[in-house]
Design brief:
The protein has 12 helices and 3 strands; from the N terminus they run H-H-H-E-H-H-E-E-H-H-H-H-H-H-H. By secondary structure, the protein is mostly helical. A hairpin with a 3-residue loop joins strand 2 and strand 3.
Length: 235
Amino acid sequence: MAEQLTGLAGDRALLGRTSTAERVSDILRSRIAEGYFPPGTRLSEDSIGGALGVSRNTLREAFRLLTHERLLVHELNRGVFVRVLAVEDVEDIYRTRTLVECAVVRGLGEPPYALDGLASAVTEGQAAAAENDWKGVGTANIHFHRELVALAGSERTDELMRSVFAELRLAFHVVDDPRRLHEPYLARNRQILEALQAGDRGEAERLLGTYLADSLERVVDVYRRRVGQSGHSDD
């Protein structure tokens, strides 16, 4: 925990003079997504509040916001913990992803599309793979899908999926072989990008639907073995 708190203290400057629960929740959400606080970690009000230099009330409000986003869970008489997803949660995340992401591609309209963000995410993933940074590949993959959703030009959809992708990262952090999980999707991201560059959103949607179905099967298979139905890690 000491190492995590040291990194968190470095985020204190991000709060500036207008410290709010929303800003604190943004910082904690990013740290959770990055794996600083893995699933099952108890979050200490005193330690985190001290590291960020915020009041207990502000921190509790941030915790409440993240609990609403299903990233944290409050356990009576035990405290606040980073949530450990159950298999059913993972399945629901992918159900939401399929509904939203495929609808975004289907509704793109006529080409050309603004694909610079998608192309950058593909390059980011390839660079991480070249460094054998497989968690970095997972991050790039999330960036790819976030940029895909952003093509809809909808702040509400972006906000919805920001929370969904953060939950997805909770599942990824439980996986013990990130290379096996993420490597196959490097090429598939590029295929989706190339279909959109060619203006073929129908093919892009088909590739995306198959991609998400295969990813769901792979993640659930690993997750079921690591966590099981109960939502408690075997570690």
